[in-house]
Structure formats: structure tokens, C-alpha cells
Amino acid sequence: MADLTTQLIEQVQSAASAGTKLRIEGGGTKGFMGRATTAEQETLSLKEHTGIVSYQPVELVMTARAGTPLVELKAALDEQNQMLAFEPPVFSASSTLGGTLATNQSGPGRPWWGSVRDHVLGVRLINGKAEHLRFGGQVMKNVAGYDVSRLQAGAFGGLGVISEISLKVLPKPAMQRTLVTECTQPEALSLMNQRAGEPKPITAATWYQGKLYTRLAGAASAVSAAAAAWGGEELEHAEDFWLALANQQHEFFSSDAPLWRFSVNSKSPAFNLSGATLIDWGGSQRWYAGEQDWQQMVSIASHAGGQVSLYRGGDRSSEVLHPQAEAIQKLQQRLKASFDPAGIFNPGRAYSWL
Fold first, then answer.
1. 41-45 vs 21-25, strand pairing mode
2. Range of the domain at 86
3. CB atoms near residue 273 (< 10 Å)
4. Can you list the alpha helix ranges (DSSP code H) found in the chain?
5. How many helices (H) and strands (E) in the chain?
6. pLDDT digits (tens, 9 = 90+) for 131-155
7. At the N or C end, where does the chain have fewer CB atoms within 10 A?
8. 13: closest CA among 348, 349, 344?
9. Within this chain, do residues 206 and 146 fall inside the same structural domain, yes or no?
10. What CATH code is carried by the domain that includes residue 19?
């Protein structure tokens, strides 16, 4: 546990003065995401900038430094029977909180329990002028003005060095059960949307290789009643299944083929694509593994009311995130210029033009 804020500020000051580009890195477990850039960069490491700054179980709020490993946060929450409800993927013991926010990573319960972005209450950020700024707060009713804290979700560190993050946490549900139903992909999409619209304690819905997995969580009476109404075979060791899915250690993710991630309207019809498929988030998140044409994938995502990214593998020197409208590009460039006027933080990591 160490507070390296002073050293981090000094490194940013030095880089800004010299025009040196900085590659912000935590545990190094998410380096495969985003674009591969060729510009010479100096590493700014948050790996040793760790520790839980405050944790108030009664208030359901936790504040930690950005380099704090997720396993450390989970261990502290387990003692109080609480959890990070956005189920962040833990790729290894060195996966950090800051990297999770910077890459906007959330697990199977995202449509029902919210994303990492939804759980952020506030951040401390070192901008390109080496100013240590505070946005948001440490309580759930303390957000006013521009919600800069949530802008960090998916920014790939391009707006500054996140030094500290405040999050809301939640109690663990009293009971969880997972139902398994055999069905085709179109049948699964229909059933997912139908179940999502019912007043039942559903917290995850995933389809893979002809089976739909539906997780129920909450009060024992509500979970039991929903399970009886929906039917299906109960999955043994269900916690292991969902943990493997959240951590992307499920067998689907073992492929070496390029991995595509769609975020689309859950009611969009099944895509006619070759390669392995896994559907999550009740139909809103769709994974495909295989060689595909970038423009074709963008077209499919747009017609389905969403976006696509080349999540892992493939050509990472080109764009890997869904194209943005010109107006959005200009807005993002203005934000970048405001927070990082010299363009020293992770240049080109998200987009070539950012």
C-alpha cells in the first residue's frame, strides 16, 4: 500500500515540459485492448500506487487508489458480504481498478446491476498540466455539473492519470440460482427479451453452444418463485460458470482467432456470421471469434443499433473501435485538448485521431 501521487505528478510535469508521450499502465493485463501505437512512449506505472483509502460498509462506498488490485478490493468486500456489482473481469491477480475503469470493463450482470461507469461516484485525476483534480465525490448524492468521473470509462487513459476512484458497492444477494434451457440462438434471443421484461429477479442471461443460462439473484422467495415459473435444469457450481464468464476464462475466450465484441439492441436478430459465438447481457453483448472484414462488422453493428470493436487480436494498427460521427469526433478532440493540451497521455490508443 503506497501513495505515489507526488511522484506521478512530477513525472507528468517532466513529460509535459519535454513533450514526452506517456503510456499509462497499471497491472499490464489489458495491454491487448485498444490500438497498437508506434510512437515512442515512456511508461507511467501505477502498479505500486495502491491501497484502499476508505471503505464504509454501512454507506456502501469504497475509495481506492487506481493501482489497487481487484482481488484486494474483493477480499475486503467479502468480509462484509458485499460486492462490486458490475462484476469486473479479473484477468490475473495484478488486474487493477484503474485499468478496469479506463477500459470500461463490466461483467454478465451489466444490464441489471449496471456498468463500472454507473458505479463510479468520483475520481481524482492528474491532467496534462500536472494538476491534481477532483471530480464527483464519495457519496451517492454528490454529483453536480459535468460528470467528468464517468468520462474516464473507456477513455483508455487519454484524459489523464486516474489516481483515485470512489465507487458504490452493494450487498451480495441472499440467494442465486442458474437455470439452463436448450434452444437455438434465435430462440434464446426471443426468450432473453421476454424474460427481461418480466418482474423477476433476473441478473444475467447468456447463450452458448445451444444452451441459455439465466441467473436469478435476490430474496430467496423471489428467486424460488421465478425458478418454478420459468423451469429448466438447475446448473451445479453456477458461481464458477459466471466467474469464468466474467473473467473471460470461459472456454469461448480460449480461441486465438480475432475476437469481436458487439454492443447492440438486444432485440436485433441473430447475426449470420461464421465462427464461434457467445451472446451475453440478455442479447445486448455478442461475441464472435474469427477472421472478419472490418467494414462488414461495422455495417452489421450499425444496422443492429449499436457498435462493434475488434476486442482482441487482428490488425491493431488500424482502428479497432467503432467509427464515430464527425460531431462526436470533434467533441472528443475538444475534451482531449482541454484535459491533455500537449497530447502526452496514451496518444492514439483509442482512435488514431485522438
1. parallel
2. 5-171
3. 17
4. 5-18, 70-78, 97-102, 110-113, 116-119, 148-151, 185-196, 220-230, 238-246, 294-303, 326-339
5. 11, 17
6. 999 998 765 555 555 688 999 999 9
7. N
8. 344
9. no
10. 3.30.465.10
